[in-house]
Amino acid sequence: MPNPAVSVRGVSDTARWVAYFRARETERPDAIFRDPFAERLAGELGFNIANTLTDGNKHEWAWVARTYLFDRFITQEIEQGADLVLNLAAGLDARPYRMQLPANLQWVEVDFPEIISYKEDLLNDVKPACKLERLSLDLEDIEARRRLFARLESQAKKILVVSEGLLIYFTPDAVGTLAGDLARSARFVSWIVDLASPGQLRLMQRSTGKQLSEAGAAFKFGPPEGPNFFLPYRWRAQEVQGLLRTAAQFKRAPAELLSLLPEPKGAFGNYPWTGVCLLHRMQ
Asked: What are residue 154's phi and psi, to 5 degrees?
């Protein structure tokens, strides 16, 4: 049984929460992706967070849709020539193990030391499908991450950046600085991000976000411009997919939310939208 005393201790614990939902989806006979490592990565803590956090188990459909869309965009970009994937705030992502990837693909994971150590311990008996490197780094250390980006620039021709579940914890200024850092080199060609509308951000801040904020994991980023936020930093949206629409496609969306479809065109404003965006660097 879940332990009612369990709470999120910090942003790193949210990775176990997400892994729990991947494990739940994997159990389904009609799973839209399978992650055989999710259950061990989530552990008992991931189960308890999902089942004791306010609304912690309510939006499983959204986590599943987000994972599916990131998988799809990653596959697409690798097929189009990306030879290095840089996963920022990789958390407990198991894609280098569970996806069909070219053996010569370089995959670099970046996260806090405790996440890197925990993950290495749990997956030390499994061989990744590609060349995997893990790095301990605080992404808010601007000079350190710039040194990393400069090093990776010399290792690849087409770099895909993945930042699943990261930007919402950054201020708009911090997101802009990161976007500018990534755009410095023409070898960083694509970037997959998830976004929330201002309306959705407020909803999240009032529910689960309140407890996460108390644990130092406050939700901060929900730009009114939507994907156009990135245009001044030389990133243009190539494709944008909403989580609710995707979940409905696979019969994962709750019936009470289907009235929100179709999604409005243009700026989402107060509409409760979350989605995944594939950005391409502008020349």
From this structure: -85, -5
